[in-house]
Design brief:
Distance between the termini: 106 Å
Domain Mce/MlaD: 43-120
Strand order of the largest sheet: 7-1-4-3-2-6-5-8
InterPro entries: ABC_MlaD (IPR030970), Mce/MlaD (IPR003399), MlaD_Phospholipid_Transporter (IPR052336)
Shape: extended
Strand content: 25-35%
Region (Disordered): 157-184
Biased composition (Low complexity): 158-184
Protein name: Outer membrane lipid asymmetry maintenance protein MlaD
Number of helices: 3
Number of strands: 8
Order of helices and strands: HEEEEEEEEHH
Length: 184
């Protein structure tokens, strides 16, 4: 005596499992930005040195004008200079990046992901594969900056460094009451 409820329940459980697997696949594709370790074409390597990486991580995008042209492939520490060395793979179709291009670590929004933003220069020479970007700007540590101004009184000698305007708050002996607050 089998009830009709058994096959319906099995069908519902099967459909739920297929939906769960499809959801995991969509999540995997979204978290890797549609790239699973292979790119659409060839790539070449560039490096850059930074004194502060902030929250930059491997696989972070490398962008020019908001367009992703590559990815961060590795982060290492120079044991001599104690700079962070960032390795990047840039798509071959962007192989004419001027040699005087600068790199900065930027953040998308207040709490967004960190990425490397390239500001293209005007040099006629181009960066060759394996070369290092010479001009870099480190990440801005927002929490350190806020803490410095909240607990440090606005920076070193903020009150002492701002002199009062000449004659501010005092009236000259020959000034009439109607002249107060009016600068000559």
């Amino acid at each position: 005596m089998t009830s009709a409820r058994g096959p319906r329940l099995e069908l519902a459980v099967g459909a739920f499992l297929l939906l769960a697997l499809a959801s995991l696949l969509v999540l995997a594709i979204a978290s890797t930005n549609g790239q699973f370790g292979f790119s659409r074409g060839g790539t070449y390597d560039l490096t850059a040195r930074f004194s502060n990486l902030g929250q930059l991580r491997p696989n972070a995008p490398v962008k020019v004008g908001g367009v992703t042209i590559g990815r961060v492939t590795g982060i290492d520490l120079d044991p001599v200079r104690f700079d962070s060395i960032v390795s990047m793979k840039i798509e071959d179709r962007f192989n004419e990046i001027p040699a005087d291009t600068s790199a900065a670590i930027l953040t998308g929004g207040l709490l967004g992901e960190s990425y490397i933003g390239l500001s293209v220069g005007g040099d006629l020479e181009v960066l060759q594969p394996g070369e290092e970007i010479a001009f870099t700007s480190p990440a801005v540590d927002l929490m350190q900056m806020v803490g410095k101004y909240m607990f440090g009184g606005g920076g070193e000698g903020a009150d002492a460094a701002t002199p009062a305007a000449p004659g501010a708050g005092t009236a000259s002996p020959d000034a009439s009451p109607s002249d107060e607050g009016v600068l000559p």
